[in-house]
Design brief:
alpha+beta, 7-stranded mixed beta sheet, 4-stranded antiparallel beta sheet, 18 helices, 27% helix, 21% strand, disordered N terminus
């Protein structure tokens, strides 16, 4: 092992990543059998099997159901084995060895080998990849097979929490083909086989009888997913019996839904945040005073009240939720203050400001209403926001990352390092504000190799402050997950908040009574 105190390593979530063996606790005897139908809010005609291109919910659910990552994470956020049954670092934390679970097969019957893992992870590396996980693997210097069941990952600098990053669903393992990960295959190793896939419309799954952990996953015989973007149509599909579960419940009518016999609504606070990203390398947002003016011109409490109907909490222009590790409670809450907005406009040499905003409902639920409220509140600060409604289909290809001001949403971060890496480093394809701050970039790297928990905490607090004070991110709110289901749909007592519908494991982990 390595010459640092075990106590230091066992302080926090990174500890689970360093243990060399784990035990799973089986769920309490769920029923097996049945067919689950899910009404999912977000999907697009551009959805694909390619793990390097999955920007919306349909792709996340497909990967979570039919594929597997090297490491997993339980409902409480602890790292657990998955395709890798154990792992250990080198003494200097620059090399990690992952020991694969023997005998695991893809749905096609092919045995999973180290070559498949190497090829799959390399899909997200190099100059040519557009994968959102590219930044997570940028510190990786080399990935190599050490026999058929062992993979060695070498880093260019120490990282005490590296295995945590491998949990992201983009890093699923697919079969190797001609030396590369097969981006076009529907093959996987998950508890369900993907049977049909109609992008932006529907998917269907059947249980994988050869899955390695059927005591804890795969209780249903089969499942199907219907993409129902319209909120009213999605609620009607549940009421009429067309589907058994829906996500993103229409909050305007949620109280009516709660009164429907045989249906229950569940409300789970989470680190899911709604974002209004400003491109910091594009006028007028190159000037931080303009960015600060925009941040003071939004009434977050009004948006939580009128768009989320109270199912959420106000945001504070950084991505770390209040219950998350490394959240900085000392950071002052930014309030709606038109006078401060005017002050920062004046500092930028402006008396008023006209800005375009391109938005679609797929940006986040209630995005159109939120943008209208924002435009109204900003007028008091001399800011005229011209809102353009964009079509939902293809929004994340045409608008996001391209227009100076738009809308998006981010599920709760697996780790602070993961979120700061994938959303704020200049090398990340998903750096939605084009943020590039030298001090911030340095802190991300330094925190990874810092063992002392107190020092790491200080660094993550400083990173939050930099984003809050200098970044291009406006966060109106953190939204609760609000889903609804028939009474015969059951789930574990604990659900993950790393994504909607139990981190999109509703098919994998839920069951019917």
């Amino acid at each position: 092992m390595f010459d640092i105190s075990r106590r230091a390593l066992l302080q926090g979530a990174a500890a689970a990543a360093i243990a060399s063996s784990f035990e799973r606790t089986a769920l309490a005897a769920p029923n097996k059998g049945g067919h689950l139908r899910v009404g999912l809010a977000w999907g697009a005609s551009t959805d694909s099997f390619d793990p390097t291109m999955t920007p919306v919910d349909a792709g996340f659910l497909m990967m979570a159901t039919s594929r597997s990552t090297l490491v997993g994470m339980d409902q409480k956020g602890y790292v657990v084995p998955n395709l890798a049954e154990s792992w250990e670092p080198s003494k200097d934390l620059t090399q990690w060895a992952f020991n694969l679970r023997k005998g695991v097969t893809f749905h096609s019957g092919k045995t999973v080998t180290a070559n498949d893992v190497v090829a799959s992870l390399n899909l997200h590396r190099g100059d040519k990849t557009a994968s959102p996980a590219k930044a997570l693997l940028e510190p990786v210097a080399n990935i190599a097979a050490d026999g058929p069941n062992r993979v060695i990952i070498t880093l260019d600098s120490p990282n005490v929490g590296f295995p945590n990053l491998l949990k992201t669903d983009f890093l699923v393992i697919v079969p190797e083909k001609d030396g590369k990960g097969d981006r076009a295959t529907k093959d996987g190793t998950g508890p369900y086989k993907l049977e049909t896939f109609e992008p932006g419309q529907r998917m269907s799954f059947s249980r994988n009888p050869n899955y390695w952990d059927l005591d804890n996953f795969g209780f249903l015989d089969s499942a199907e997913v219907l993409i129902i973007g319209d909120a009213a149509a999605r609620m009607n599909a549940l009421r009429s019996g067309q589907v058994d579960v829906v996500n993103s419940v229409d909050l305007k009518t949620v109280n009516m839904l709660k009164r429907v016999k045989g249906i229950r609504v569940e409300d789970t606070p989470s680190g899911l945040y709604y974002a209004l990203p400003m491109l910091t390398d594009t006028a007028p947002f190159k000037d931080n005073n303009v960015r600060l003016a925009m941040k003071y011109a939004i009434n977050r409490e009004e948006i939580v009240k009128k768009v989320l109907f109270g199912y959420g909490t106000v945001g504070n222009d950084h991505p770390i939720f209040q219950t998350a590790k490394y959240f900085d409670p000392s950071l002052p809450q930014r309030e709606y203050d038109p006078d401060k907005a005017k002050y920062h406009l004046k500092q930028a040499g402006l008396d008023s400001l006209d800005v375009p905003m391109n938005i679609a409902e797929i940006g986040f639920p209630g995005a159109l209403a939120a943008s209208q409220l924002y435009a109204a509140s900003a007028q008091s600060a001399g800011i005229n926001i011209n809102v353009t409604r964009e079509p939902d289909d293809g929004y994340y290809d045409r608008v996001w990352l391209k227009k100076p001001l738009c809308g998006s949403f981010w599920y709760e971060a697996i780790t602070a390092d993961g979120r700061f890496t994938e959303a704020f480093l200049p090398t990340s394809p998903w750096n939605e504000t084009h943020f590039n701050n030298e001090r911030f970039n340095e802190l991300v790297i330094t925190a990874r190799k810092t063992i002392d928990e107190g020092e790491r905490t200080k660094m993550y607090h400083e990173m939050q402050r930099i984003i809050h004070d200098e970044g291009g991110l406006i966060t109106p709110a953190f939204a609760n997950y609000v889903w609804a289901m028939k009474d015969n749909v059951n789930r574990p007592n604990d659900v993950s908040t790393l994504g909607d519908l139990d981190a999109f494991r509703c098919i994998s982990r839920w069951w019917l009574s």
